Amino acid sequence: MKxxxxxxxxxxSIVVIAGFAILIxxxxxxxxxxxxxxxxxxxxxxxxxxxxxxxxxxxxxxQRPIYMDGQYHYYYLYNRDYPEKxxxxxxxxxxxxxxxxQDEGVSIPKYTNPNGDPWSGSVxxxxxxxxGFGKGALVAIVTQPSADGGKQEQFLWYSIDKGKTFTSYxxxxxxxxxxxxxxxxxxxxxxxxxxxxxxxxxEGTKIGFYESDNLKKWRYMSGFSTENIGLVECPDLYQxxxxxxxxxxxxxxxxxxxxxxxxxxxxxxxxxxxGNHFSPDHSKPEWLDYGFDWYGAVTFEEGKxxxxxxxxxxxxxxNNWDYANNTPTLKEGFNGMDSVxxxxxxxxxxxxxxxxxxxxVKALNxxxxxxxxxxxxxxxxxxxxxxxxxxxxxxxxxxxxxxENVGLRLRESKDGKRHADVGVSLEGQxxxxxxxxxxxxxxxxxxxxxxxxxxxxxxxxHLKILVDKTSIEVFVDDGAVVHSSLIFPxxxxxxxxxxxxxxxxxxxNVVISNFIVK
Length: 518
Hints:
- By secondary structure, this protein is mostly beta strands.
- Helix content is 7%, strand content 46%.
- It is built from 1 helix and 34 strands.
């Protein structure tokens, strides 16, 4: 009996162990199935949440977008060999709302003819077949360093497949270099009044004006000389209707006003253009942005509406040649971002004349957001909001009676030591963005705080601020002044603090829209 009982106990032990093994296997299988359903947290990245960024490698100058078949077609300078080799080509992206972009690949490749790589230029839709490539063909006039000693000359490329690919018209320039070192960045418009093509060209410190009937043969008309803004690049010419009903022409260019304490962004003059000459209202330019990183800007027409003069759009490369290769995104294999697209309007101010105002494109409001709002906060010193945000829009109305400085600390660290500051110095009479206390690209620290004049007689300001992974864009008083600059905060620096010095301020209607971008 003992042997039989012992054998029975042994058998029962085997059965129990086998049962546990089956249960463990079932639990592990269920765990594996559940684990496969658990979303993997995304890898932290410095790629912008809602700004246009190059898919890989490098981008710089935007080319003016055109609207065709329900889409905006955008080309930009791209270097597939960055950072090992140089040379740009035209890469193509499309959008229906100027916020979401679809990459379409390279349309004008580099080093495919004896004249080197394609640089900046502009593309137009030839609706009347003036160039002979077919009605509706796309024609691009592009600067290339020609085989004739690397001179900057203009070459024609055309597309008959809706802008997917462009064909070189030939190895001979349609505009030979007239004997100047700088001769680049042609911008073409159709002048409806004179029924001809008009081109503006960057020629050192001068902007040249040219005309053509067929986009192939160009005639020089006149020149507009600039002063104290260095070499001009990426010129621009367009007409707008101001809020008082008057029509004005605007001549713009990317320029460098650092020698006189002016910005290094987009300078512009309002005035009149008679089809041959531009006459400015004032000799000194105004600036469309006071930040450090809004360069190579282009403006373009609304594609969907019939009113081409009440407003335009604008975008720029968010970088600066003084530190263009200093960005944390290089570790992720890309370097290149644009500003948000803005809507610009022309406003008349009594006693001051005409100037452009900017607002972020309205389609940004269609992005899904989580929202936090505060009706009124009285601040004397500092007040940290119970909000964490990484990519967002913040709006606030700020008022005061007597104060020295007022603003917000954004992308702030938990210990309060790191932050980007936005505000108004009543003591200094300027609005500003200060990136001294956060990561930023200028290792020389020469470009730390951007400033724009502020009227201290007013005792309030409205701020609309766009913050992304590596950028900040501040629209002051409905976009009368804008600051656009790169910042490189740590990804977990997400605090927001209101602050004042020398008095009390009231922050009203503080709304933080945290963009939820998949």
